[in-house]
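In response to a reviewer's request, we include the raw inputs and outputs for one of the modeled complexes. The two entities were modeled together in a single run.
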Amino acid sequence: MLNYLKDSRELLLRFFDSFFLGLDADYRKINRWGPDVLARMNSFVTGGKMVRGSLVRLTHDMSEGTHGDEAIAAGAAMELFQAAFLIHDDIMDRDVTRRGKPSVHAQYAEVAENEAVDDSLHIGEALGICAGDVALFLAFEILGTLNVNGEIKGKLLYNFCRELEYVGLAQMADVYHGAGRDAVSRENILALYRYKTGRYTFSLPFTAGLILAGRDDAVIEQFTLLGEKLGIIFQIKDDELGLWAHEEELGKPVGSDISENKKTLYREILFERARDDDKKRLLKIFGNKKIGPGDIGYIRSLLESSGTRNEVENLTNRFSEEVRTIIRSLPATQPLWKDRLLELLDYNRQRTK
Amino acid sequence: MLNYLKDSRELLLRFFDSFFLGLDADYRKINRWGPDVLARMNSFVTGGKMVRGSLVRLTHDMSEGTHGDEAIAAGAAMELFQAAFLIHDDIMDRDVTRRGKPSVHAQYAEVAENEAVDDSLHIGEALGICAGDVALFLAFEILGTLNVNGEIKGKLLYNFCRELEYVGLAQMADVYHGAGRDAVSRENILALYRYKTGRYTFSLPFTAGLILAGRDDAVIEQFTLLGEKLGIIFQIKDDELGLWAHEEELGKPVGSDISENKKTLYREILFERARDDDKKRLLKIFGNKKIGPGDIGYIRSLLESSGTRNEVENLTNRFSEEVRTIIRSLPATQPLWKDRLLELLDYNRQRTK
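The model returned the following structure tokens for the whole complex.
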């Protein structure tokens, strides 16, 4: 599976090379921001792991579809959507680092600062909002001009739009939960993981590949469910990395979920299990912008000693079992592909960034 | 023309009624923000004049196309794009009023404030960014599922995406100019008007209607040029209204272009013509967030006495002549339609909001 992801990433990189090159002349005509946005976007999308984009190709290829080039293009669109969301999210979360570099709005704030433009932080955010919007339009340009028949194109676009709308709504819940003082139930947290990560990161690219390959709705439903479960595991891993990863490898600050008071599953279970005196201390740490390594260390050890880490591990094991059951029940395909899906589960659980 | 716009608006309102109703059940399943966004979006889009949406129908109908329903739907998508841009723009410009009501991010800041959520202003902005994104996806959902053949759909989506990308780039220039201290040349100002307003507000809906009606590229080019010129006139009128309109009728604060230091044509010509002592005073007013009626009154009278208002009027007359020439040269159509386009020019020049 890792080789398959690596090969797919290569194909996506090649697509982006010629895609951005093809836009260059037109964009230069508009204003200085035309080539500027293309360069930053190219650097941004090619700096990611491109898992989402690769998954479009995966389900297309395992269905032996005939739209290989279009699956790469749709995968590239998927990566541009992800870029747009990350650019907008970083503004909402005030994150200044992403993929090991300054986040896009932070880059723009620096441009404004260097050119002695007033109000440079706000201008950076404003330019970031615009750049994210442009990334969305570029993604739709790719999808809208795919060389597929009208029925496939309509179905594909409908699926993308609906899921992206739901991601937007889930992001609203995420932002609002982060700022709110109330606890968020496990049920609501899992609902958020389902829409913001599961359906978006896995079900959507799975579905895109299947639609391109002309598969029927029953198969799409199975893969949608598979994607939801894989996505919840992926998100829990993301939360885990946000607490325990090596910062350099992760490419963004460890502990930012704590200072942003993200209502993760770890946090919720920790509060369910913590003693009153620990709770008091935790309430002072979560949502505090100025936490240090000591605070993170304290939370890490409490996650272990309270049994929280163990409980989350058990939950992940349960979801993993469900994933294996779904993979076994998928329609007949070459064993190779089922193995790859199982490897995707392992990758999801073992990744370090 | 006014009657035609009114009728089109009615048809768009009817479309939106059933569109939002059709989304309601699915959106309710996601979270509290699903129905919330739909309600705010419905109120927002139906509060506008819907000129852009109506223009899609106009060029489709004057071409005697057979996609009447699709022209209304594409017009509705146009209005949703506009809603998304306005929601994002208001965050960038820190405008808290729009269409006579609190702007969307200001509404969300109030929700957060009322529910004792921390950092309510920022949370309002974050929710506004998301709501704008959702509006974009809804617009693409409409376009992606139009009942037209694959060729028309591809051409339509390509056109929409490219122009929207350029609007994003033009908005970046606009934001950046506003914050910068340097003068912006007339040429750059007109280039901005062309992409941010002309091609987007007129050429794009014109083109959408023509594509739906199956018109060829030569006609689309003529209408694109017509749209650019009409749009520059529209933008100059917008600038004029921002200086001289009645605030209640306009639905947003008069003078905000001054406090935001927008590099309008009026501002540029005023600085070209002002005496040194006036220039000093002007520099203290433009970009100042705390200007009062006295400052606006001073600028108004200087715009008159310096001959700036007159020069802009002459420029507008020149563009109007060019518009009339293009309309006369359009391919043969019933005289009624050419008259309507001429009335659109008049409307553009005479509107009071």
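As requested, we also summarize the result in words. The mean pLDDT of chain B is 93. The radius of gyration of chain B is 21 Å.
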